[in-house]
Amino acid sequence: MGEFGGNDYVFLLSANKTVDETKAYVPTVVSAITIGVERLILLGARRIVVPGILPTGCIPIMLTLYASPNKADYDRYGCLTKYNGLSRYHNDLLRSQVKALQKEYPYAKIAFADYYTPVLTFLHRPAIFGFDGSSTLVACCGAGGEYNYNPIAACGFPGATVCADPSRAVNWDGIHLTEAAYRTIAGTWLHGPFAEPPIRSLA
């Protein structure tokens, strides 16, 4: 069910909303996701995975568009703190709604799937997962700049190039993760610990 929410917040921010103004929309977005899950259950769905959103402040598009001269605006991984705070707020609200749905519909198997924590884990210990620790915040496919993201020369457009080994990169095009990153996250969702409960247990 999703991933919903990430684009909503990116579009609001690109419309010159502040992070605090954007946060005001989070309950509405989470409510829409919750209503959608409930409708699926009432239509007969019995196994549903509800994913949260990525740590927005760690994504090259956000790091490029909202770069700050103030080092205090970044965390120890180099991510923008306040944008990650927005992601955490969304994920916390969504997780609580999933728990409420689990109680209300005990005959349905519903899992909350965490994107946020695995990505931070990649940044903290990249070598364990086979990623290049020098470029965890850099897009594999892009057209230059500190994070290899250029909004007017995005991946696939003239001027963009691809890194030598995408399997060693966390981010693909400045917005989406690489297949390698998604594959690792999928494993943590299937078997744990980043799905509540693990998807294999929904069978």
Automatic annotation (TrEMBL):
Highest rank taxon of the organism: Eukaryota
Name of one Pfam family that matches: Lipase_GDSL
Record key words, sorted: Glycoprotein
SUPFAM superfamilies tied to this protein: SGNH hydrolase
InterPro entries linked: GDSL, SGNH_hydro_sf
GO molecular function: hydrolase activity, acting on ester bonds
Similarity-based family: Belongs to the 'GDSL' lipolytic enzyme family.
Protein name: GDSL esterase/lipase
Organism phylogeny: Eukaryota, Viridiplantae, Streptophyta, Embryophyta, Tracheophyta
